Amino acid sequence: MKQKIVIKVSMHCQKCKSKALKIVVAVPGVESVGLAGKEKDEVVVIGEGIDSVELTRRLRKKVAHAELLSLGEAKKVEEKKPNSGDAKCSPPPCGYLQPPPCYNYCVVQPNDPILCNIL
């Protein structure tokens, strides 16, 4: 059974927030971690077999004052899949690759009488 734990931690700087997240991620059984709350001072942990009291104690010891707000079962979020039969698919755009341009060139040589010797 997945459980959702919300712990309020006194975090005033970005360094404290990253330190708290590193501590939570190190606990075995944690699947996802996030920050919530108006001031991003609540750590939301989702996982299986997590000891919430031990986690709160670790945060209290290494970061700052921590308070366990809630502990409950994590709700599954179901994604809605659109019906493939109702949606009209447009055909892929036809691409026409033009060949590279053909350049015409002409070699011009001066007509020099010295070069033409017919004997």
Unreliable stretches covering 5 or more consecutive residues: none
Shape: elongated
Question: Sheet with the most strands?
Answer: 4 strands, antiparallel
Give me the number of helical elements: 2
Q: Give the overall average pLDDT.
A: 83
Number of DSSP strands? 4
Task: Note the quaternary state here.
Answer: single chain
What share of the residues lie within helices?
Answer: 10-25%
Which class of secondary structure composition applies to the elements?
alpha+beta
- Separation of termini? 107 Å
What is the beta-strand fraction? 15-25%
Q: Mind telling me the C-alpha Rg? A: 35 Å
Strand order in the largest sheet: 2-3-1-4
Order of helices and strands: EHEEHE
Q: What would a concise description of this structure say?
A:
By secondary structure, this protein is of the alpha+beta class. Helices cover 19% and strands 24% of the residues. The protein is elongated and about 110 Å long.
Structural features, described:
This protein is of the alpha+beta class and 119 residues long. It contains two helices and four strands. Strands 2-3-1-4 form a four-stranded antiparallel β-sheet, with helices on one face. The mean pLDDT is 83.
Helices, strands, pairings?
Elements: E1 3-9, H1 14-25, E2 30-36, E3 42-47, H2 52-62, E4 66-73
Antiparallel strand pairs: 1-3, 1-4, 2-3
Protein name: HMA domain-containing protein
GO biological process, one term: plant-type hypersensitive response
Membrane topology: Peripheral membrane protein
Which descriptors would you attach to this protein?
single chain; 2 helices; 119 residues; 4-stranded antiparallel β-sheet; alpha+beta; 19% helix
